[in-house]
Amino acid sequence: MKLIDLSRDVTHKMQRLPNHPVVNVSVFTGHDERRFDEGYEFSTQIMLLSLGDHSGTHVDAPVHFDDRPGAKSIGEMPLENFYTEAVCLDLSHKPLKSDISVEDLEAAVAAAGVEIKAGDTVLLHMDFHDRTFGTDAYLTDFPGLTKASATWLGEKGIAMFGVEAVSPGRPGRNNFEVHHVCRDMNFTHMECLRNMGQLIGKGRFRFIGFPLKIMGGSASPIRAVAVLDE
Q1: Range of the domain at 198
Q2: CA distance 8 to 193
Q3: Three-state SS sequence of 116-152
Q4: Sign (positive/negative) of CA torsion 118, 119, 120, 126?
Q5: 4 assigned to some structural domain
Q6: Residues 172-195: pLDDT tens digits?
Q7: Residue 225, Cβ neighbours under 10 Å: how many?
């Protein structure tokens, strides 16, 4: 068994969309503060985190993009959605700022020699993180799904899909339409993944990415992991 970590590091003031909260990571209590209890000396370190529910590698809950009564928050979503079989499609040839079409997805499935099954997690490797992380382009220049290609995934009955970008569709109308496809077809997506290149050519594998149980949360950071039988 081999574990592939698909998550970004959570760091102080990490890159995020400008309309999202700044991530703050600081030392609340450090080892320089000595404590005494019944004559015993010791120290502990405790970190203080301040971050939005869409920070870093995260999964969106229906309530994020669905304003209808009954839309589920992150803590209400079935745990089974985050422990699934999975496939990874290679779209690393797509130029920056390009749309991912239905034909692109069909070609990637054929090249991978896999079948997308109901309940799967589908990861879309665009080599985007390594091409742009740490630059302004990371927030704007990603390839993205369209309404049609997101609908194609939804018709497969998937549990969710995941991308390296901060949004699943290109900035603007495409992104809103992809979110609304998720709403209307009852699946969701993850953003800000990484290391998916290590999954290309591996066939089917197990995906694990449990969210925090945030009451009313519209998303949650996750520790996304692929489990390979090697």
Answers
A1: 58-228
A2: 7
A3: CCCCCEEEEECCHHHHHCCCHHHHCCCCEECHHHHHH
A4: positive
A5: no
A6: 999 999 999 999 999 999 999 999
A7: 15
